[in-house]
Amino acid sequence: MQDLSHFHQPITDLFPFPKTAKDWEPYRLSQEQLDFFEEFGYLSGIKLLNEGQIEVLKKELDEVADPKHPLHHLFHEFHSNESADPNTVLFHSLGHWRISKAFHDVIWNPAFVMAASQLLGDRKVRFWHDQLFCKPAHHGGVVAWHQDYSYWTRTIKMQHLTCWCGLDYATTENGCLYYVPGSHRWGLLEKPALAGQMDGLMEFLTEEQKAAFKPVAIELKAGYGTFHHPLLVHGSYENRSPRSRRAFVLNVFADGTISNSDDELLKGVPVIPKGHKMEGQFFPLLN
User: Fold this and answer.
1) Collapsing DSSP states into helix, strand and coil, what is residue 211?
2) For residue range 138-157, what is the model confidence (pLDDT) as tens digits?
3) At 103, is the secondary structure helix, strand, or coil?
4) Domains, the chain, with CATH or none
5) Contact of 77 with 267, CB cutoff 8 Å
6) Where is the signal peptide (predicted)?
7) DSSP state of 182
8) Could you report the per-residue pLDDT of 184-203, keeping only the tens digit for each?
9) What does each C-alpha distance from 216 to 176, 178, 196, 197 come to in angstroms?
10) What b/e readout covers 41-65, taking b as 16+ CB neighbours within 10 angstroms?
11) Closest listed residue to residue 100, CA positions, set 134, 136, 152, 53
């Protein structure tokens, strides 16, 4: 067993990578989809996985979620419950692409890579980091309202993108994602704690922003993804349903993004000095 971050290409045949420009065409977003993202700050309902791929990823999720996994030390973060309340469980981790072959290769899923490149302005795309967000049945916790970039200012300029993909059918009952359309135009807000209390962000909003705070539920079938702007306000409510809500997140940025810190960017990753380009073993180019 080894650290898969050394491999900057797919290592299985789970996500066949296109070889020609024609092969890429089925994955291309329409101009209407790109315009929707520009206006509202998100784009949902993009099919990323088939049933076979979902099953492989769910199996490997169960394996890496075990704290006794022999490569557990490769996680950048691992929280069996990021909430302090055992009655509201939020499993959250970063770095499983280094451990699981399927989660390594999903980064090179052509449906994801094409959409990410287009939404970043037809740019070359680099991997930033991955996440798992899992809410168990009956007592799954919340993810507070937040903007992703408020946690990422250690990298500049802001040319980032997030993709959330469910491994279960995500509904309002089991804690699906919610977006606040248009909030990507509000500028950078203060960052709240990510788990526990849903509404910590509200104290940082203006009266005008509070009036425009009209969340929409992003219900998605398993295998479908949703992309959002790094400043879009989003969150998710608790899961009190009898069904789990498992999802993974892929975070990327446009090639040319630089470090804005002389500190460690992710736990276990060598320092990239402030002003230096984000690249190397942990930030591979995807296209």
Assistant:
1) helix
2) 988 888 999 999 999 999 99
3) helix
4) 27-259 (2.60.120.620)
5) yes
6) none
7) T
8) 999 999 988 877 678 889 99
9) 10, 5, 21, 19
10) bbbbebebbeeebbebbeebbeebb
11) 53
